[in-house]
Structure formats: structure tokens, C-alpha cells
Amino acid sequence: MLQRLLPFACLAMAVCAQDVVPVPKVSGPVPVTDKSHIFGEAKSNLTPMDLSKSGYVEEEFLISGTANVYDWPSDGQLTVKGANNPYTTRIVVRRPADPAKFSGTVITEIPNIARRFDWPMIWGFSKEYILDSGHAWVQIGMPASVASMKKFDAARYGSLEFNNASKACPGESEDGMRYDMFAQVAAALKSKSAGMPLARFNVARVFLTTQDTGMVTYINALHSVKRLEGGKPTYDGYLIKVLNAPGNINSCTRALANNDPRRMLKGVDVPTITVLAQGEVEGMAWSRLPDSDAPNGRHRRFEYAMAAHIDKHAYTGLASFADQTAVGGAQGTPDWPFNARCEPEINLQEEKLLSYAFNAGFWHLERWVKDGIAPPKGERMVLDAAGKMPVNEYGIGQGGIRSPYSDVPVARYTTASGGPGNCREFGSTKPLSWTELEKLYGNHTNYVKKVNDAIDKMVAGKWVTEADAKRMRAELTK
Questions:
Q1: Cβ neighbours, 10 Å, residue 45
Q2: Are 468 and 360 spatial neighbours (Cβ–Cβ below 8 Å)?
Q3: Distance of CA 229 to the CA centre of its chain
Q4: Measured between alpha carbons, how far is 474 from 208 in angstroms, rounded to an integer?
Q5: What are the tens digits of pLDDT across the range 286-330?
Q6: How many Å apart are CA 368 and CA 74, to the nearest integer?
Q7: 8 A C-beta contact, residue 116 and residue 145
Q8: Angstrom distance (rounded) from CA 351 to CA 81
Q9: Helices marked H in 206-259
Q10: How far apart are CA 68 and CA 84, in angstroms?
Q11: Other C-beta atoms within 10 Å of 129: how many?
Q12: Are 188 and 228 in contact (CB under 8 A)?
């Protein structure tokens, strides 16, 4: 009863209404030598990248602190299940070498850990935009990747841990500790204290992005209570791939029931932008929220027609095949990084629509936070009464954000493929024959005009950046 009467007090194991986030201990950058390098370093990714050509450097730091394990009961009141568990994680920082060329924006990524090592999927999609814009990019190491990192380089990564000292849940490692860690990484990135990763840089905005459901948990359960000095938010905006239900708050809990109100994205005091591909819309229709400009609920949802859940560009940021092999996580071949083939066999989609979509999302997020310019409101894709998406003869649905890929097709597209494993997530492209192309467009000149008209509409609608519009024209009109 006392907790209900005094909701802003710190009571027993309840979390304060605003819990000041401590700045964690930072060590590094960790030296790179002939015998020890960063796992997943850019120069040896599946698609290698020489960051120095863009005026960038890559560094790795170790972050240490203590983290609580939380419960998040149905009333939404966050409580502490186990306090002050020690952790050490790693962050990888890619930033301009010259602080004067830094934009002020940091894009922080929660990597995908489906393969039990850190896989920066969003970097794979948006690396060109990040580098062109002068942004810094930071990857946060996950609890699930600790064993693989120690196997990769015991000397370099031997101190990594998420020690469940309070034994809030069974087992040695506790995934629920990552939420406090997320907050403390943001505090370190914004800190001007000596030794902090970006202390020499004028950090104005830190965004968080991922496909991982843990970010939705952080937004819904922790964003409003984990605050920096002066009550400022840890993260200044969120870009969400897919927008699924929140992940588990700790390793003991079960997934939230379908009718649980905690599943829906909560309005917070910073903007959230969700980007969905056509292939994700049916499954994620339940998470649709109205676009909003409310101060505590600024939100946009962008649904892009034609795009599949994932394409080849997501895999370009994977660690080199040699590094994956060293941790026992390599699958398939560098050209087909999966253990099983699809049926029938396909090639991963090469169209860059998802990259353009995420780039536009980051661009709008920055304008919204920095300049107060709200993004446009995107049309939703059409679902029938049964929740299914009707598609035309080219596999493209109605509505959504349109592009040359959807409105000037040169192929038949699928947003899910047959076969085992991840095949249902893969899109495929079957090029149209010359006869079909001539019937549609008559000649190449007519086709190019239609492509340029479609790109002009995207530019006018603010659905693609100017730089990506140029890339799209070069790709589609050659």
C-alpha cells in the first residue's frame, strides 16, 4: 500500500522513478597486435572495409560495472530481483579520426547474437550512410557472446563476464544484466571524463538500434527510469528493426502473453522510428501503432513494399570466415553463410532497398532530435480481412512506402523462400525476361524515365536521402 501511495520513492526493491545511471569503468583502447585483433574488425569482415579511406579509426574498449537483475510484473513497476552483479563487456567504436569531422551523432548497435557471437546487422545495412554522415558507430558486446570471445582470444577477452553473483536466476551468466549495461554504455559515450571512449568528441546525440527484442524491453521498462545526471535520457532516440514484443527482462521469465499490454511499444520522451520490410508486415501487424507527434510518444512506422526481412547486405558486417571458424560459429561458405540450402536454391537478394530504408530512418531520427523536424507519416501496407497481404504478379503488396523496386519492377520477388532453417526469412529475385521487360516498358529509355520518376517521388516524400537517391539511380539505370 505504501508503494502505491508513494510511487516516486525508492522503496524496498522497487526502482526509483528516476535512477541516476553511473558512468562505468572504461579501459582501452585495447591494443591491436600481430597476434591479437578485434573480433569482427572492419578490415576483415565478410565484406572487408578500409575505414581509413573514409577518415575513420576503429577501437575496442572494455566496459566494467555492476548491474541489477530486474523483475517487470504486470503492473509495470520495475523491481530489483538481484542487485550489484559485476560485469565486463566490450564495445567496438568506429569514429572519425578527426574530432572536427564528427557530426555529433553516435549510432549504438545491439548486435544480433543468433550465432553466439556479435553480428552487427545494422552496420551491414547502413555503413555507407554512417561514414558519409560523419557519425560514430558503437557495437555493444552481449552476454551471449562472452564464451565465443574467450574462445577466440583468451588473453584479449579473458576478463569478459556477466557474473550472476546475486544468483537471481540459476546459472553463471545472466542475460538480464544487459539492461543496466546498455544504460551505462550510453553514460560512458556521453561522458567527457578522461579515458572515456569519446571524451574528445562533441557528442550531442546517442541513438540505439537493433533487431534484438531487448531494446523494446529497455524502452518499455527502463528508459523512463534510467536517467543521466539532471534527468536527461540515456538514449536520445531509437531505430527499431521489425518491432517485435519485448524480450525477457531476466533469464527466469517467460515470454509475455499475446494479450499483455506490456508488449506494445511504450511512448517515451524521445522519438522512436520502426522500419519494417514487406516480408515482416503480416507477422508484425499486431504491433502497429498510430504515428504520433506527442511529446511523450513521438513515433513513426515505415513499411517498405517489396523488401524481404533480410538480404545479403545484412551479412556484410559478419566477422571474417576465419574468425567465425575460430569460435566454432562459421556456417556454410562466405558466399552462402548458412548450413542449409533453400529449396529451390536461391541467391540472397542484392537489392539495397533495406539499406536505403534504414538510412532514411536514421536521417529522420537525427533531424527530429537535432532540429525538431518531424518525419513524414508513411502509408501502411494493405492486409485483407484475414490479416494476409495480397500481392500482384511480381510479388509486391499494395500500399506502404513505394520505390522503383516496387513500382518499376524488373523481377518477380518473394519475401519468403522454401526450405529449412532461415529460408522463410530470405527473399529471392527472379529476373523478368527481355520479352516481359519490353512489354512493360517498351525500351530502356522509357524504363529509365520511370525509374527516375519513382526516385523523384521518394526524394520529394523524404523517403530516401539525396546520397542514396544518387546511388539508386546509378544502380537501376545503368
A1: 20
A2: yes
A3: 26
A4: 31
A5: 999 999 999 999 999 999 999 999 999 999 999 999 999 999 989
A6: 32
A7: yes
A8: 46
A9: 214-217
A10: 5
A11: 22
A12: no
- d(C-alpha 378, C-alpha 289), whole Å: 12
All 3 cell numbers of residue 137? 558507430
Q: What DSSP designation does 200 have?
A: T
Residue 158: all three cell numbers together:
579473458
Kindly report, residue by residue over 27-55, the tens digit of the pLDDT.
999 999 999 999 999 999 999 999 999 99
Q: What is the pTM of this model?
A: 0.95
Q: Count of H helices and E strands in the chain?
A: 13, 14
Is 174 in contact with 164 (CB distance < 8 Å)? yes
Q: Which three cell numbers stand for residue 384?
A: 485483407
Nearest to 59 by CA among 157, 118, 143, 138: 138
| Unique residue bearing C-alpha cell 547486405 | 313
Distance (Å, whole) CA 424 – CA 243? 18
Q: How far does Cα 38 stand from its chain's mean position?
A: 21
Which uninterrupted H or E stretch holds 278?
helix 278-281
Backbone angles phi, psi at 181, to 5 degrees: -60, -40
Residue in the structure block whose three cell numbers are 560512458: 188
Distances in Å between the Cα of 406 and the Cα atoms of 176, 352, 395, 396 are: 41, 13, 9, 6
d(CA 270, CA 24): 23
Q: Give CA–CA dist 425/122, Å, rounded.
A: 16
The total number of residues shown for the chain amounts to 478
Q: What type of residue is 74?
A: S
Task: Judge whether 250 and 69 are in contact, CB under 8 Å.
Answer: yes
